[in-house]
Amino acid sequence: MSHIILPTAFLPPLARLRTFSGAHVSASLRSLRDFYWPSVPSRLTVPVRKASTRIHDQSVPDSGYASAEEDDDDDDEEGGEEESDGLTDEDEDILRADPFEREFAIKWITGFISRSDVWIEDTLDEAEAETRRELVEEAAQIVSAFAGDDEETECAVTRSFEFNGSVKVELNDAPLSSEDHTSVGLQSWASSILLAEKMCASPGTFGLDKSRPLRVLELGAGTGLLSIVVAKLLEAPTIVATDYHPNVLANLSANVQTNFPCSSSLIDVHRFDWESPDFSHPMDKPFDIILAADVIYHVKHAEWIKGCVEQLLAPNGMFWLMIPLRSTGRHEGMDHTVEAVFPEFETASGLVVLEKKTIGRQGGVGRADEGGYKLFKIRYDLNPPEEVDAPTLVESKHATFNLKKTPADGQKAYYAALKDAIQLARNQVGDELTAWRDAVGKAELNKEMKKTLKAEDEGEGEEEEEE
């Protein structure tokens, strides 16, 4: 590098921010990245080398500093370029480590964020407005990088979890890529941690029955926390953990190996694209349980996931989806996209939401923009016809059935689902078993018993006639 331009020279005055286009601000942010991180690492880290010489005299503020002030004037002086021919790497590090330039850059970028709402609203062009919103998020990433200036590098972190006092999991959280947003699965997010905690506290609630040879699928597995927890809770299940990003899949495989060094084949790590799904092996057979946590980052994701679940969920299977409730940014309100494609079971058929729970923030878990979490319990509405009144399993609601009008295949699926329901009821609402047995009798599920009762009634009638 033959010369280097300093932030005090290339960052525009914030007093005139409303006159700058997204392209102008984008170029400024790119220059700021290039200045502090000329070769982009896996995650932004601010150089912390101590400069032997300061390039600014603190007693004489640089003219460009005023552009970061809250009440700056429009007629800021032009900051001069600092150029040097034949700079060495050490010279460049000294320039980047200069505390005056660093302070100016931080003040500028935080000032930019504080003014961003007005700047975004100033344009009537929706595409330009979206560009500006993305630039504000990029600025927030840079602020986060500055906040981590005490760390020389962002390294992988080994995280240890213990759920319900017995289930222990060790995961590698790899650094996120600053340029590839699809690599978010390299780290463990609060949604998966909270869902894992709930599954360990009450496996039966989630259909995790050790007595059955279950097939379990995790969509957007990321670090694999949910799949690994299920493998530790069940005996010899078939588990497929899927994701899309190559780096995420590599880290996922490593986590499986860490937790099951002698039997890593217990979990099949598989690449799976929701938008263009491939339903060949191991996705060629239905799954009893499908899990997903914090997987909705785009308005189309819920729609794509529904298409996949429709193909992959067994008729009596269950899909558990946990998502964060983000209050700001581009991911705000993503829970509504789920509700739009998965209707309530009283209002539609097919894949429906049987239950929806809102979970508050947990101390020490979750990002600052996560105000809580929503857990969806989704399955097929078997849609049996009307007549016999029977309380539904865990929810204690009511549905009506007429098995005589139901096709044979539908009856078989219904019987299987009801069997699962009774098992769940034993785990959760044992007091309702009596009501269930009454409902089962009314639905003619135990025909042999009815025949026996009829025969006994006829026998008593004959005895009365003889008397």
Explain what the structure shows:
- It contains 13 helices and 11 strands.
- The model is unreliable at 40-46, 48-85 and 384-406 (pLDDT under 50).
- Strand 1 (157-163) and strand 2 form a beta hairpin.
- The strands form 3 sheets. Strands 5-4-3-6-7-9-8 form a 7-stranded mixed β-sheet, sandwiched between helices. The chain has a two-stranded antiparallel sheet with strand order 1-2. A two-stranded antiparallel ribbon has the order 10-11.
- Helix 4 (99-121) packs antiparallel against helix 5 (126-147) and helix 6 packs parallel to helix 7 (225-233).
- It folds into 3 domains: 7-147, no CATH class; 157-380, Vaccinia Virus protein VP39 (Rossmann fold, 3-Layer(aba) Sandwich), CATH 3.40.50; 388-451, no CATH class.
- By secondary structure, the chain is an alpha/beta fold.
- Residues 68-93 have a biased composition (Acidic residues).
- InterPro entries: Methyltransf_16, SAM-dependent_MTases_sf.
- One of its GO terms (molecular function) is S-adenosylmethionine-dependent methyltransferase activity.
